[in-house]
Amino acid sequence: MPLRRLLAVLAALLVGAATLVAVPTEAMAAPNFKAPFPCGQRWTYSHHSAEVRRALDFVRADGGTTNGTPVLASAGGTAYRFSQPSGAGNYIAIEHGGGWKTYYFHLSAYSVANGQAVSQGQQIGVTGTTGSSTGPHIHYEQLLNGVGQNIVINGGALAYPGSYNQYYLTSDNGCGSQPGKPFMTWGSGIRVRADARLNAAVVATLGGPTSVRVLCQKQGDTVTAEGYTNNWWAKLASPAGFMSNIYIDDPNQVLPGVPVC
């Protein structure tokens, strides 16, 4: 090939390569983030000027207790554990890929190992008030390439009110197509038994507040706790067995919306 022809071909190739390099890569779409608390729970949220980035603080507004409630991954990814006693307290950061990250501050306890892969709706910690905090709540953030973003849940942007009880969010995180109605338990060392009897075999023990799904309920032995008595028992989907309704975080002795076994 003549030298002039060869040089022309090489020049064309260089221009083409430069054009390819100049084409910007498309940014990865945000995950479909869900609320960072269990299915069926209703929380209120607020933002104040001193908050870092574009955080929102969440507290329960459905009659349940904020402190001790499980904190859930709002999208799948890799979870990392951190501690900052003078600020965020015990917290989890989840890397979701594409530059996306979420933060969950002030945890009373971690529920996953450092560097563990987690799925959306998986419990990653327990709500608390560690670090610089005036009371139990979930401090929650969504970041893209380290920059705080306006928080979006289920594709919809949340408001940024200056105080609680103006806006509310009911979670569908972890609901899926699982059987039964979701509830939270309270207390620790709660025994799940093979039947609704105090002498029935123990099939599992709930270490602390746990999200459970109740298939049905029936009357059994009477249980007394914290000055209350109840003879209704809930049949759980998992762990499979019965627990006293007295340890279900609901003010009703007979759980609403749950059939009789």
Overall SS class: mainly beta
**For the terminal residues, how far apart are their CA atoms?**
88 Å
Task: Give the tally of β-strands.
Answer: 19
Estimate the helix proportion, in percent.
Answer: under 10%
Low-confidence stretches: 13-26
**What integer is the average pLDDT?**
87
Percent strand equals 35-45%
Q: Spell the H/E element sequence.
A: HEEEEEEEEEEEEEEEEEEE
Main sheet specs: 11 strands, antiparallel
The Rg value, from CA coordinates, equals 25 Å
Distinct helical segment count: 1
Mass-distribution shape: elongated
How would you explain this protein's 3D organization?
By secondary structure, this protein is mostly beta strands. The chain contains one helix and 19 strands. The chain has one helix at residues 3-22; strands at residues 42-46, 56-60, 70-72, 77-84, 89-97, 100-110, 116-118, 123-127, 138-144, 147-148, 152-153, 156-157, 168-170, 181-184, 190-193, 202-206, 211-225, 228-236, 241-244. The strands form four sheets. Strands 1, 2, 3, 4, 5, 6, 7, 8, 9, 10 and 13 form an eleven-stranded antiparallel β-sheet that branches. The longest helix is centred in the first third of the chain and has 20 residues, at 3-22.
Keywords:
single chain; 261 residues; mainly beta
Give a brief rundown of this model.
The chain has 1 helix and 19 strands.
Write the layout of secondary structure elements.
Layout: H1 3-22, E1 42-46, E2 56-60, E3 70-72, E4 77-84, E5 89-97, E6 100-110, E7 116-118, E8 123-127, E9 138-144, E10 147-148, E11 152-153, E12 156-157, E13 168-170, E14 181-184, E15 190-193, E16 202-206, E17 211-225, E18 228-236, E19 241-244
Antiparallel strand pairs: 1-2, 1-13, 2-9, 3-8, 4-5, 4-7, 5-6, 6-8, 6-9, 9-10, 11-12, 14-17, 15-16, 17-18, 18-19
